[in-house]
Amino acid sequence: MRIFDPHIHMTSRTTDDYARMAEAGVLAVVEPAFWLGQPRTSPGSFTDYFDSIIGWEPFRASQFGIRHHATIALNPKEANDPRCRPVLDLLPRYLAKDGVVAVGEIGYDSMTPAEDEAFAAQLALALDHELPALVHTPHRDKARGTQRSIDVIKESGIDPGRVVLDHLNEVTVAAAKDAGVWAGFSIYPDTKMSPDRMVTILQEYGPERVLINSAADWGKSDPLLTLRTGEAMLKAGFSEDDVDRVLWQNPVAFYSQSGRLDISDKSEVEATFAGNSILRGGS
Amino acid sequence: MTTLDQLKSELAGNERLTDDLRRVADKPETVAGLFPAAGRRYGREPLTGGWTTDEAARALLLSVSPADQVLQAYRYGDTAEKLAVLKALPLLPIGDSGVPLLEDALRTNDTRLVSAALGPYADRLGQEAWRQAVLKCVFMGVPLKEVHRLHDRADAELGAMLRAFAQERAAAGRDMPPDALALLDQLKEA
Ligand SMILES: [Zn+2]
């Protein structure tokens, strides 16, 4: 199985995790800029973090043959802190990088006016820099937050096909599908989504424009839940091609819209499923 | 060593770059958006003398920028950008003001940055810092052939540091890299 984890916070993970991921078939990851669990108090703290996810993490990943890209943004939670907001002025420097393949995570946490402003401003930055956008949906008041995110996305003028709405579940998936955005699912223990629930959603909605990620971070999470979801799909009767589609081809297609995704030496890797290998062309 | 004029003539046909160099000369702050995008804007093809198009274009962009923009390009650079700044340093008319960039690169744990910091511009690095940098190369497994003027600058003090390190390695049952042993031999003979 070849796996592209389109949303994982490697800065919070150990080097052992990289080794386990590589062994499990993870060939590429995207690390979105997000909250670190501990509030930051200045723009400098953000830029050091951005430097790490465009510099140190790609280097660490490369030791295990994993290709690492990032997305850059001021996250919704810290958009509420006036001490952090000036980082918005520094974002254009980072959005010009080769390794930055989207603006994100943007969206809502508590749906405040400050979040409205940062969300709209950063969708405008995505348009300016010809980048896709990764939109986080709130963990509380999720259904209304998702609908409001869709409204803001529509208003911004960005093509919905260049947006992924992430952390969806059974309650919010239909609205995302109707809006024409990509549907992101975080397979995360206890809180967000499980491999078996994911399989049920795939049975109902199909594999098109679906992104599956571990969203592994500093919380109780597991970077191998992408693999577990692939295994659950096969067990439920999905074809190897369906699995490859959601775990590899879809994230490649989504982030390729940036024009900056570099997986040149990864796309030719043979996909292997349950010990059988099938040869496929670059995609 | 390759000069700015050589890079300029190699890239003379790159119209986009020629336009952008003029833009930066007029408005220095525009370099902030152009420098990171160099590979996408001007190409990445190899040139002569071990340069690539994006590296050479980045050196030329820095050559028309004021020193503070050079420092900012490094400060906000990703690894490829930082490497390009380090490579350009000896060609730029900035005196010693780039030395803190070498010190920053030498503090990292990225072998590419550490070795790039030990190019010709490292002639401006003090001897103590330079010795520590060479020892760090041995520790990290960076080949010593990357170090500019290694054999000229290596002194008895570096020899003592390497010998102590070799003893620690021996105690741990680990080998010293052959290039470090060869350097020790050279210092013994001196
Ligand atoms: Zn996240």
UniProtKB/TrEMBL annotation, chain A:
UniProt entry tagged with the keyword DNA damage: no
Keywords, sorted A to Z: Hydrolase, Metal-binding
SUPFAM superfamilies: Metallo-dependent hydrolases
Cross-referenced Gene3D superfamilies: Metal-dependent hydrolases
UniProt key word Hydrolase: yes
One of the record's GO molecular function terms: hydrolase activity
Pfam families the record matches: TatD_DNase
Segments crossing the lipid bilayer: none
InterPro entries: Metal_Hydrolase, TatD-like, UCP005295
Sequence similarity: Belongs to the metallo-dependent hydrolases superfamily.
Name under which the protein is recorded: TatD family hydrolase
UniProt organism field: Paractinoplanes lichenicola
TrEMBL record, chain B:
Entry-linked NCBIfam families: EboA_domain
Superkingdom to which the source organism belongs: Bacteria
Protein name per Swiss-Prot or TrEMBL: EboA domain-containing protein
